Amino acid sequence: MRLPILTACLPLALALTGLAACNDRDPSGEPDAKSADSRSKAAAGGADSMAARDGAVAGDEIPDSEARPIMQAQVVLDRLGFSVGVVDGKPGRGLANAVRAFQQSRELPETGELDEATRRALAEWSQIPATRVVTIPDDWGARTFTVLPDDAAQQAKLDELGYESFAEKLAERFHTTPEVLAALNPGGRPAGAGGTTGAPAAAPSAEATGAPPAFRPGQQIRVPNIGADRIDPSRVDNTAWRDTLRALGVGSEQPQAARIVVEEAAGWLHVFDAEDRLVAAFTVTTGSRRDPLPIGDWSVKGVARNPTFVYNPELFWDVDDSEDKQHLPPGPNSPVGVVWIDLSKEHYGIHGTPEPQLIGQTQSHGCVRLTNWDAARLAQMVRPGVKVEFRR
Fold first, then answer.
1. CA distance 285 to 354
2. What is the pLDDT at residue 13?
3. Which pLDDT does position 203 carry in this prediction?
4. What radius of gyration do the chain's Cα atoms show?
5. Does residue 68 fall inside a structural domain?
6. Tens digit of pLDDT for each residue in 273-304?
7. Domain span at residue 354?
8. Per residue in 37-84, pLDDT tens?
9. For residues 128 and 122, is the Cβ–Cβ distance under 8 A?
10. Which one, of 188, 321, 228, 179, lies nearest residue 26 by Cα?
11. Residue 358 falls within a domain, yes or no?
12. Burial of residue 103 (number of CB atoms within 10 Å: 0-12, 13-18, 19+)
């Protein structure tokens, strides 16, 4: 369990680390024209064996049981940098924000809907399926998952605020939730597999146990077909950060940000390059009536990757000041997730979250909160001095 009061966006003090290099990315997720040897070396040192390999195999070995057009649009938009937040195959605020940003980038009418003009523009990537089947790597079995204590003092004793379950880790790898993975793998088998076992041994069905399927190493499963997840180790010299990118299915190549705009009412964050082109967009959670977003012009001071968190009760109106200050370890279930982007407004920043399904649906303590995978992408786009505008 995460600390309930800390699932919202929070002011804090953090030590800052350096910023990794970044470049424009290929939305297909495929490497540029390189030798097979260089591609294999990059894959071995960077992305895991579940990374997108578009065009590597003619057709899916296990065809999906349905078309999933909304998920297909979400997957393409996610690859292009216009994130829907959680890829779940459902319409909602995240999809509308991503569609509107895509439309703006293509100078289309900004309806926020998958209208005919938008579908024609997205048809360029119609060959990318909504899902793919992967085999969970054997080395995933070496990790132990533990439910986290609620108490901050107990959390402070841990080495890491890591994933609490195999399904949670797997879901973040594919920008979704354990519930979506369960729906894509009824009975623990990839949708469309019929009676074919998608694992070394048959997994018990959700219907039989009353719980989602228990995923495990070596199992074949169906996942959202996210891409743009290749990692060039030469561009990420921090091993721990490279591991985080791999765990989140986030590629090392990202566009360079010149300015960021956050609109509170719409709940989005837009990234513009030096030519003032919209190159990325994310759905976010911002402030609340008690802790409003600090409207104004700010700038990025620095970026902390896999940050520790200083839990100071004096900074929170809903916490008893008599509680002790705690230094919480890093991890995806940290109150600020895997990234803290420090702003020139004291105690405020842009960061990740342990609750990706709540992005765009709940309020925060005044900062700007994204999913961990979106925060990881944004961290590679910014550098000290990038302008940040908060609008109502």
1. 13
2. 41
3. 41
4. 20
5. no
6. 999 999 999 999 996 666 788 999 999 999 99
7. 4-21+250-391
8. 344 444 445 789 999 988 665 445 799 999 999 999 999 999 999 999
9. no
10. 228
11. yes
12. buried
The closest alpha carbon to 304, from 352, 250, 232, belongs to 352
Q: Give dist(CA 232, CA 236) in Å, integer.
A: 7
Q: 187-227 pLDDT, tens per residue?
A: 999 999 975 444 443 444 444 334 567 899 999 999 999 99
Q: Could you give the C-alpha distances from 13 to 6, 137, 342, in angstroms and in order? A: 14, 37, 9
**CA distances for 180 relative to 215, 328, 364, angstroms:** 13, 30, 25
Other C-beta atoms lying within 10 Å of the C-beta of residue 230: 23
CB 29 within 8 A of CB 251: yes
Q: What is the CATH number of the domain that holds 298?
A: 2.40.440.10
Distance CA 336, CA 8 (A): 9
* Other beta carbons within 10 Å of 72: 20
**Is residue 380 one of the residues assigned to a domain?**
yes
The C-alpha atoms of residue 84 and residue 101 are separated, in whole angstroms, by 10
How many domains in the chain? 1
- Cα 100 from Cα 87, distance rounded (Å): 16
Question: Does the residue 337 lie in any domain?
Answer: yes
Q: pTM, whole model, 2 decimals? A: 0.85
User: Which residues have CB under 8 Å from 174's CB, separation 6+?
Assistant: 87, 181, 223, 224, 226, 249
- Between CA 43 and CA 49 the distance in angstroms is 8
Strand partners, 260: 271, 388
